[in-house]
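User: two proteins, same treatment. go.

Assistant:
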Amino acid sequence: MSQSHFARAFKKATGSPPHFHLTTERLTLAKWMLSSTQVPLVDVAARVGFQTQQHFTEVFHRYTGITPRAFRLAARNELPAIGKRTPGSQNPDTSSQE
């Protein structure tokens, strides 16, 4: 089976190309490692299959919208939860109180 035939068959069967599937699986494992372990970022990158921490950070940011470090800090509750509330926005719990 040729590489292009495999890619077409994979996309037809799963709805996404093989590279996208592999990347999302790697990032799922990376998210778990970032939130559950103290492994340094460079080692997380290597363990999930990235050649450099820089490339890992670029891909992680592209797919999630935040850096691996920010994800780790948010998972530890050291940063406000990402996407919950932006500065200047009203808190939904208190906006209807008078």
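Protein 2:
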Amino acid sequence: MKHKPIVYPNKLKEKRLQCNLTQKDVSAHLKFATENRISRWEQGQSIPSIYNLLKLAKLYNVHAEELYPEADYSIPVVHQQIADSLLSSASGTFYIG
């Protein structure tokens, strides 16, 4: 019996289009070689890391919660000011372990 793949509903494509950006623009901003990852995120096939989610929110000028409105935010979410601070102080590569 095959399992149905999990789909992560999101507003990534909608917010990207509101900013008049292409997937290629976004992938370049995130320093990805191709737009494949952006496509998979927008289709709900995978989800971005917290760091990339915050970078997307800043790029689209929205709160991170707006990108995944159906997510369970019962765990406290980083405030936008803290997120901005993290993004502005991050130097080079940021690893989530």
